[in-house]
Structure formats: structure tokens, C-alpha cells
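Good morning C.,

I know you're traveling, so I'll keep this short. The sequence:
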Amino acid sequence: MVNETDDQATAAFWDDFAPDYVAAQNESRLAITTDLTAYLTQQNILSRASVLDVGGGAGRFALPFARVARQVTISDISQQMLKFARQAAVQAGLTNLKFQHSAWSQLPAQPQADVVFASMLPLAPAELQKFSQLGRHFAVLNRAVRHTDSISTELQQLLDLPPVLDPTNDATIFSEYVLAVRQLGYQPWQQTFTYHLTEQVTREMLVAELADELTLHQQRLFQQWLTEKFAQHDEITAQQTYAFKTLLWRVGLQ
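The C-alpha cells, ready to paste straight into the viewer:
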């Protein structure tokens, strides 16, 4: 159970991190918001519906949803994230958005909208019963489940680096969600969105990211690798793969 102190600490973190997070979000080249909105519209989930976006932050999904849905409420623990969402809604000319300052733990376990949605909300599988109760017709969970980078993988193997904790590279939790939803008596279905991108990387970028964390032996290997890779080029290309999975289920129809 999340207590009030935990919620306050989480809110403070996201209030402080909000500007950097929104900047990174705005720079993202991933089409997941467009693609997921189109998919939910095709499934007749969004059209003319009311939507509660739990942990909706600065409106990354809520704003495109609002172009299709009747009304969208962004619920978030961070006042600063909601401030960015309000600004984005005004700039987009959207008037069917509501903003709710609330921790997920404080939401009452009863229907709040036709559709309850969350993307990357750190839910435990045991919390999916309450999450389901927030929607009248549908519940939708979106997660990043895979992220690979060719250069990072090569360096991790070369230098024997420990795995990096990456919230966008966690397929296990999604499998646990599927099992938990089925145990609640629902019949979920899934949709996968996969993206392949490239990024140009400089020697300086890699040195800034790694150099201070390496042992002397690793430093020597790293410098040799850099010399070989950048012998004829100022930049090298990283191949990146991102995969998202969306879990959907009807609620209230057991």
C-alpha cells in the first residue's frame, strides 16, 4: 500500500523532473501516440467516449485522444506535469480536456469514465482489479517492453558492463499483467507496436556517457574501440529498436 509520504515524494520528484521529461517527450521520434490513437479508434474504443488517463502527465496520449474522444481527463500526481498539459491543450485548441491532480493511490475504486487508460504507470499486477474498476466499458494499459541499441549492446559485451535498469525494456511485467487480468475473469487482447530508428553518435557523446564509470582495463579497451570505430568517421550509426505492447479488456461484462 502506498502511503501519503510516498505520494509526496513521488510528486516532488515529478514536479522537479517535469521540464526535462517534457523536453525529451517533445523530441521523441516514436509514432506510438499516433498509432495507438488510430488503433483504439479503429477498435471503437475512443470514439465519443469519456477517457480517464491515469498518470497522464503532460498529455502525451491524452491530447491526441481528445481529438477523437468526447472528453478526456488527465489524472496525475504532479502539478507541474499538469501545468504542461494545460499549456499544450491551449496551444492545440482543445477544450474537451479536464485536469485532475491526484495520486493513483487516492483514486476511488469506482467507474470514472467509459475508458480507463494508462501508459507506463508503475502498477503492480495486484492493482489491476482497482484499475479495471475505474472504467465503465474498457481498460487499456500501454507499456514499453523492449529497447535495444546496437552500440550500447556492443560496448556492454566488450567491456563486460552490468545490465542497465531500463523501464522501456521490461517484457516480464507485461506478461504478469496478462495473467492477472485473466485471473480477474476478463478476456484481454494485445496489440504490439514496433519502431526501428537510427541515431548518429559522436565519439564525444560516448566518452561523456561512459568514461568516468570504467576501470583502467575497461578504459584501454574502450579507447581502442573508439580509435577503430572513428578512424574514418566523425559519427557512427546506432540502430535502435523500440517495442510497445498494449493490453485491452472489456470491463463490467463478466
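Safe travels,
E.
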